[in-house]
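Annex B. Sample input.
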Amino acid sequence: MERKTVEPSEVSLAYDIFAPLWGLLQLGAVREWDGASAFRPLFLEFVTARRDSLARLLTGIQAVADLSDDTMAIFEKQGGWSDDDPDFVPDQLGASLLMYSGFVAEYPLDFADADTVRRVIDAGTDLQLVNLLQGLVGAALVRGPEVRSAASLVAESMGIAAEIIAVDAGPALANTVRSWRIAHLAPAVRPDSNMSEARRARLRALALQVESSLVVSRPDHEPGR
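Annex B, continued. Sample output.
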């Protein structure tokens, strides 16, 4: 007999989406930072300059996860750019970036080492894009609309996120989907997972639709080559 699935709360699903998005914004701002000037003004400017894109992204997130306005307000309140938030301290900023990257470098992060900082930013961007996709798919799985609409919202949201952080959306999102399939999809759809068969079927359908939107067939995979 299949176990009864315990559904995550609305707020939990929201954090699964907002946390990687906060990370991507911070990583995107650091990518433009000189490492010497104060980081907070640059971060605020980075977020402010992307308000239109963020608004479109948040609209998609609310639709795919069926989040209330109160839950959506968490994104602004805890994003790190309100007037009440403290200035960034270098060690704390370094620890945050290392966390977002999966600790690919040692603490404390040496901001004078440009190669290491760049590696942390790149690794963090890769990881948080995968986490964002997982958060969106997870919310779509339990609260979203029918599969085709949900997958379209997920794909559109990922595209806007890539636009916001100025990565090459085609290759970046294709790699994101491939990494997500390995890290998150495979264990979830195994016969011995805790997910119900109906939920596994919906997840497979969502994954297929998202993949068809975000992964472009590579030339070396064409028949006869």
